[in-house]
Amino acid sequence: MTLLLLDQATAIHGAEQEPKESKHALPKYEEAKFIIIDAVTNFISIFWLFTESDFFTFISPVSAFGILGALSGPLLLQNAYEPSRMLRRAPLVLIYNWSNSFIFALANQRLPESVEEDRLNKPRRPLPSGRMTPLGPWDETSLLFTLNWMYNDLGGGDEGEWNTAVIGMQSSSLAAIQ
C-alpha cells in the first residue's frame, strides 16, 4: 500500500526533485558569518550585563589611575616610554581591568543568594533575567582562565602584539601596558 501511494505521488508530481533553494536563502558561509556575529554580540552583551554596575565605579577610575600614572613616568623617570606609546596601549589597560571585574562579577553573581538578591535589585543581569543559568558562567570563566594559562604558561604574550592584546586580558597589569 505504501509503495502504491509513493508511486501515485511520483506519477502525479513527476520524478523526485531536489528541493529548490529559496531566492532569499543565504549561502553557507554567510550563515556562518551571521552565527559568529550573533555569538560575539551575545558575549559582549552578557559581558556588559555582568559588569555594567562596576564600569563607572571601578573599571573607569582604576583604568584612568593606571593610564595617568604611566603618563607621569617621563616627568619622574629618566628612561620612560613615550606618552604616545602609552596612550596607544590604553585600551589594553581598560580591557585588563574590565576582564578582571568580569571574573569577580562571575564569582559574585552566580551564588543562589546573589541571584535572589539580584532578582529584586538588578533583574536585568543575566542570571536573574534567565538569560543564563548559574552553570552558564562556567564557559566564560573557563575561557578567561584558559587565556590566562596560554599567556603565562605557554608564552602567548611573546608571540606578537595581537596575541598580547587578546590573551593579555588576564595577564598581569605590567604585561598589559608594557
Explain what the structure shows.
This protein has one domain. 70% of the residues lie in helices and 0% in strands. The chain is built from nine helices and no strands. The protein is globular and about 55 Å long. The chain starts with a helix and ends with a helix. Residues 1-14 and 169-178 have low confidence and may be disordered.
Which keywords apply here?
178 residues, mainly alpha, 9 helices, disordered N terminus, disordered C terminus
**Distance from first to last alpha carbon:** 77 Å
Major beta sheet, specifics?
A: none
User: Can you count the helices?
Assistant: 9
Radius of gyration using CA atoms only = 25 Å
Q: Return the structural class.
A: mainly alpha
Q: Note the beta-strand portion.
A: under 5%
Give the proportion of residues in helices: 55-70%
Average pLDDT works out at: 74
Number of strands: 0
Number of domains: 1
Order of helices and strands: HHHHHHHHH
Q: Unreliable stretches, pLDDT < 50, 5 or more residues?
A: 1-14, 169-178
Shape: globular
Keywords: Membrane, Transmembrane, Transmembrane helix
Protein name: UbiA prenyltransferase family
